[in-house]
Predict the structure.
Amino acid sequence: MADIAPRTLIRTRGRKVSAFGVRPSGTRHPLVATAMVLPLAALLVVVFGGWEAVVTQASSVGVMLGR
């Protein structure tokens, strides 16, 4: 446990370099993250036939909320 802190300190001192320049942290805008995840989520829904499960869960949530 004690040797985790020095490595974390070293990581926070260095800056990550991306194609667009220096990024102060490893975070990205939520819309960018959403745009990255949606194609994979759509592919998984199609491949595994999960659309019915999504509709069922959304309907259940709607019933619980009283709609």
Q: What stands out?
A: The first strand starts at residue 16 and ends at 18. Residues 30-48 form the longest helix (19 residues). The beta strands are 16-18, 21-23. The chain is about 65% helix and 10% strand.
